[in-house]
Design a protein that fits this description.
heterodimer, A: 428 residues, mainly alpha, 21 helices, 78% helix, B: mainly alpha, 5 helices, 77% helix, elongated
């Protein structure tokens, strides 16, 4: 077990592709078993590579990636940002509030933090700079609000973890709604104080006509998340089917209503999304090998005993896990963290009697923060590039927002009801 | 030089194939919804076919992702190494990756031979499992080409 994990970490940190590194570690584990009493066939690795991704719920992942790509390319995101601007642009904290709100609405569709940051940042960062926001602050606000993406439904992260662990994706989606709003609220509060302290007063006035106009233009776009979430919620469609409908609707809006998509650009989006999908899929395949080794080694049992010897309080255990995840989040990104740790941690946590939905929400909120913690954070890089400022400046400017998000994470961790109330109410 | 061109071609073709698989998945999923809710006549085979397309997409596309530098990897630590040491580490990693992919290809072909002898098929389409398994060695060969190419490039830029 220690050899396996050590080998995996060493290979990962040497820069090996993640799926390959996990498969390789699995192979070493099997080779060692040949010297023991129960040798294992090497073909197990190849079979696990395929079994790991041989599941229908997983198909929601490429569909949501594609829907997000089509919406950004097709101008849907742009409409939503304009609408948020008209709605809350005049309140103190002005465009900062807009960014948070726009990200919450947009994330209701793309389900990925990096996609949200690039889509809303492209519109909002220049707008904030025009209103005298320092560039690093504009970038920091976008980066921090984009972390809500994978929490508010739908969420690609929930699809991946749900499929890996057999947790209901519908329940996860609904479970993310309230924690996502809490994160948004914490960011709005933080933003209020930060902008007030910097003396940034919004220049725009509330304009009823503008609100009406942007609402009319955006109404078709706003219908989309409502439709997707509603159909999953009321059991009309499976997450995969809902994602398929989202793809069709995004294409319809971009191609026929807003006329931003052409057949050519649609194919470019398809190509880009296909490659994104493949890079995730291959690592999921590799993670299946680690999952299998964890079962074979009875790691769950050993780790559960180990954790219980420290404390039997579930909240304390969750805090230990949170601390580990947060520290690992500095050098690592959410997906590697998920692939490496979910196969090992999830069974342990379930054995300890923690609700799977609650745990997955905590895990996802925590790992998303890895996107905005230096030195490695994809969102941090994107917003710095969009704001034409340095990563280190943005890293400093993002600290108050990061603290707000950590407070949200702590509340989500200690209060299971916050996450579980809505899915328990709406779903059996 | 010529090999570079060939490899670029392969990547471009694989990228288009991946995009078509994604299009197929989207089309099947939407068709499934339409058939069930509009005509209340659900297909039984769409699910199986779209999963197969998804598996193919995953394995065929990884080589493309790698060639474009869009695969998932951890750059925080190798980025801190001095250039000379970095080269050594990269070399070892590329060598080990190639070895692993080669072994994976051989293993999967063995699994394919066994399953096709036994004649295992999928439930609805009666598609031989071996056809689905074929995606792994095919994808790994594409991936391997890119890894070897990078390995080669490492030695050339002394």
């Amino acid at each position: 077990m220690i050899i396996l994990f050590g080998a995996m970490l060493l290979l990962l940190f040497s820069g090996m592709e993640i799926g390959t590194a996990m498969g390789f570690a699995g192979m070493i584990y099997i080779l060692i078993s040949w010297f023991g009493p129960t040798p294992i066939a090497l073909t197990t690795i190849a079979q696990n590579f395929v079994y790991g991704i041989d599941s229908f719920p997983f198909l929601a992942m490429p569909m949501f990636i594609l829907a997000g790509g089509l919406m950004n390319e097709g101008g849907v995101t742009h409409q939503l940002v304009r609408f948020s601007q008209a709605l809350v642009g005049h309140i103190t904290g002005g465009l900062g509030n807009v960014s948070v709100l726009a990200n919450m609405i947009v994330s209701g569709m793309t389900g990925s933090s990096v996609a949200d940051a690039s889509a809303t940042g492209a519109v909002m960062i220049p707008a904030m700079k025009r209103e005298k926001y320092p560039p690093e602050m504009a970038a920091a606000i976008i980066g921090a609000s984009a972390t809500i993406g994978p929490i508010v439904p739908p969420s690609i992260a929930f699809v991946i973890i749900g499929s890996m662990t057999g947790t209901s994706i519908g329940r996860l989606f609904i479970g993310g709604a309230v924690p996502g709003c809490l994160m948004g609220l914490m960011l709005l509060i933080t933003n209020y104080f930060v902008t007030k302290q910097k003396g940034l007063i919004p220049e725009r006035r509330f304009d009823g006509k503008e609100l009406l106009r942007s609402a009319r233009e955006a109404v078709l776009s706003i219908l989309m998340p409502i439709f997707v979430i509603g159909s999953i919620l009321f059991g009309i469609a499976t997450p995969t089917e809902a994602a398929g409908v989202a793809v069709a609707y995004a294409f319809f809006l971009g191609f026929i209503v807003y006329r931003k998509l052409t057949l050519r650009s649609t194919f470019e989006v398809l190509k880009r999304c296909a490659v994104t999908t493949a890079s995730v899929t291959f690592t999921v395949a590799g993670a299946a090998v680690i999952s299998w080794v964890a079962t074979d080694e009875q790691i769950t049992l050993k780790m559960t005993e180990g954790l219980l010897s420290i404390t039997s309080n579930p909240v304390a255990i969750l805090f230990i896990i949170n601390a580990i995840l947060f520290i690992l989040g500095f050098p690592l990104e959410p997906l590697p963290l998920t692939m490496m740790l979910i196969p090992i941690l999830f069974p342990v946590v379930i054995k300890l009697g923690i609700d799977p939905v609650h745990f997955v929400v905590i895990f996802t909120v925590n790992t998303t923060l890895a996107l905005i913690t230096p030195p490695v954070g994809a969102t941090l890089y994107i917003v710095s590039a969009l704001g034409q400022t340095s990563v280190s400046k943005v890293s400093r400017a993002i600290i108050p927002y990061l603290i707000g998000l950590i407070v949200a994470l702590v509340i989500i961790t200690v209060w299971p009801g916050l996450t579980l109330w809505l899915p328990n109410l709406l779903m059996k | 030089m010529r090999w570079n061109r060939v490899s670029e071609r392969i990547v471009a073709v694989a990228e288009i194939i991946s995009a078509l698989f994604l299009l197929l998945i989207a089309g099947l999923t939407i068709a499934q919804v339409v058939m069930r809710y509009v005509f209340s006549y659900p297909f039984t085979w769409t699910e199986e076919l779209s999963i197969a397309a998804f598996i193919y997409l995953g394995f065929i596309g990884i080589g493309v992702a790698y060639a474009q530098g869009r695969h998932l990897w951890v750059d925080a630590f190798v980025g801190m190494l001095p250039a000379s040491l970095r080269k050594v580490v990269d070399g070892i990693v590329l060598g080990l990756s190639s070895a692993f992919l080669l072994i994976l290809i051989v293993l999967m072909i063995r699994v394919m031979i066994v399953t096709s002898k036994v004649g295992i098929t999928t439930a609805a389409l009666q598609l031989p499992r071996a056809v689905i398994y074929l995606s792994l060695p095919m994808g790994c060969i594409l991936f391997l080409i890119q890894v070897v190419r990078r390995f080669w490039g490492l030695g050339r830029t002394q």
